[in-house]
Amino acid sequence: MTNAFPIDIRQATVKDAELLARLGAALFAQAFAHMNSPEDMAAYLPTAFNPIIQTEHLERPGDIFLLAWVRRMPVGYAQLSVSEPPECAAEEVDLEGAIELVRLYVDAAWHGQGVSQALMEEALRRAAEGGHDRIWLGVWEKNARAISFYEKCGFAVIGRKDFLLGADLQTDLVMWRNLRPSSPC
């Protein structure tokens, strides 16, 4: 895809913890506030998006945050993490040594303009360069746009897992894909 504007992607550092906390909370709220109660959002956001938690992840070996910039403005990010896949996934596909795509969010103003695809391609490249053969993710079963995007990028559903947003127990689809041979979205 050819863009009329450059998309710059760089790996975040600990100095970006505050930015990641603000950007993460804003993009999560943008994506999900209209589908969840204000109480559940208010309970979840500070536990998932604050500078202390972002710093812990940025300092953890195996975690990679990628920041997407357009016109010197941060417009999205992706987070990769070495973590244990949920048990439901192990029943369907061997995910030993896989890496998790924890988050991939892009400002709605930039949807459909190649930012999500650029972030995904960079995340897949980094995961493969890190020696991972497979990648997995969890996506809310009600997030049809994201599910469609992930399917376009070669991910397939292999199970379900719980996700607690505030007091609301929700269901995420667990999706995965091979990284070798590597193929873009």
Q: What kind of sheet is the major sheet? A: 7 strands, mixed
Within CATH, the superfamily carries the name: Gcn5-related N-acetyltransferase (GNAT)
- CATH structural fold name: Aminopeptidase
> Which term fits the overall shape?
globular
Report strand %. 25-35%
| Helix and strand run | EHHHEEHEHEHEE
Category by helix and strand content: alpha+beta
Identify the strand order in the major beta sheet.
1-2-3-4-5-7-6
Number of strands: 7
Q: So, CATH architecture? A: 3-Layer(aba) Sandwich
Helix content: 25-40%
Name the average pLDDT. 92
- Under CATH at level 1, the class stands as Alpha Beta
Q: Cα-atom Rg, whole angstroms?
A: 16 Å
Low-confidence stretches: none
Rounded to the nearest angstrom, the distance between the terminal CA atoms is 11 Å
Total number of domains: 1
List keywords for this structure.
185 residues; alpha+beta; Aminopeptidase; seven-stranded mixed beta sheet; 6 helices; 36% helix
Quickly describe the structure.
The chain is an alpha+beta fold.
Provide structural commentary.
The chain is an alpha+beta fold. The protein has one domain: Aminopeptidase (3-Layer(aba) Sandwich), CATH 3.40.630. The chain contains six helices and seven strands. The chain has helices at 17-32, 38-48, 51-59, 87-92, 115-129, 144-152, and strands spanning 7-11, 64-70, 73-81, 99-106, 134-140, 156-165, 168-178. It has a seven-stranded mixed β-sheet with strand order 1-2-3-4-5-7-6, with helices on both faces. Helix 5 links the parallel strand 4 (99-106) and strand 5. Helix 1 (17-32) packs antiparallel against helix 2 and helix 1 (17-32) packs across helix 3 (51-59). The radius of gyration is 16 Å and the shape is globular. The N and C termini lie close together (11 Å). The mean pLDDT is 92.
